[in-house]
Specification:
Muramoyl-pentapeptide Carboxypeptidase, domain 1; L,D-transpeptidase catalytic domain-like; eight-stranded mixed β-sheet; alpha/beta; globular
């Protein structure tokens, strides 16, 4: 009986520790995720990533080829997968033919659990910015790689169609935005060109990098690499190709109203 009693005590102790660890991990994960959130605006096909109440980066995305395909609402990231296979087409993960790209951030949308709807990469960069998917949110592979490294499971994701700013959408969905968040992408009226330096140049580099035009380090120095990226962007947007970031280029980058 004594041995049996000791065995029961050991079992109960183990059970209590397991419960404590389980809930402890759940709380810490929730607290970590609460400091991050993502907003996807289907009206502009842009994704915004916030951390600690501040807008960190925005990215161009692709959404459903019909408005109803990409679900709207407040969801969570429930799984993270590197090189997910494309089961429908029997294409393994990591294969250049895989339309899911190299990263998968699964969402608990419409009663699914990260198996149907996701933010993911894509093997067709030309589709980004368009309405072409069957419901998922597509990103450039380089952009989703960066996002994948930042976000944690349980990170809130708001998907909407709106003419409002990301900050306003966040507040309307009960997400905290710091007073400095609205200035995170603010830029002065000064013209930027080769030789310019400072935070305004960093903002331009971040924008161009998120769109796939700039591949170098974000260092706030307007050098040859930034000049080349600006010219590529201007050419793509049918602007004057001069490498100078003036009012029209800033507007096309979404840095002014």
């Amino acid at each position: 009986m004594e041995k049996e009693g000791n065995a029961i005590k050991k079992f109960l102790t183990t059970l209590m520790v397991s419960v404590f660890v389980f809930f402890g991990l759940g709380i810490s994960r929730g607290e970590a995720a609460a400091s991050q959130f993502i907003i996807i605006n289907k009206s502009t096909n842009k994704l915004a990533y916030y951390e600690n109440g501040k807008l960190v980066k925005t990215f161009k995305v692709a959404t459903g080829r019909k408005a109803s395909y990409t679900p709207e609402g407040k969801f969570k990231i429930v799984n993270k997968i590197v090189n997910r296979p494309y089961y429908t087409g029997h294409i393994p993960g990591g294969d250049p033919r895989n339309p899911l790209g190299n990263r998968w951030l699964g969402l608990n949308a419409r009663g699914t659990w990260g198996t149907t709807y996701a933010i993911h990469g894509n093997n067709d960069p030309s589709s980004i910015g368009k309405y072409v998917s069957s419901g998922c949110i597509r990103m450039y592979d380089a952009d989703v790689e960066w996002l994948f490294e930042q976000v944690k499971v349980s990170t809130p994701v708001v998907i909407t169609s709106s003419s409002k700013s990301f900050d306003t959408i966040a507040k309307e969905n009960g997400l905290k935005v710091s007073s400095s968040a609205s200035n995170s992408s603010a830029i002065s009226t000064s013209i930027l060109k080769k030789g310019s330096r400072g935070n305004d140049v960093k903002i331009v580099q971040e924008k161009l990098k998120g769109m796939g035009y700039y591949k170098m380090a974000v260092d706030g120095i307007f050098g040859p690499g930034t000049d080349s990226a600006v010219r590529k962007f201007q050419r793509a947007k049918k602007l004057q190709v001069d490498g100078i970031v003036g009012s029209q280029t800033k507007k096309a980058l979404g840095l002014t109203s």
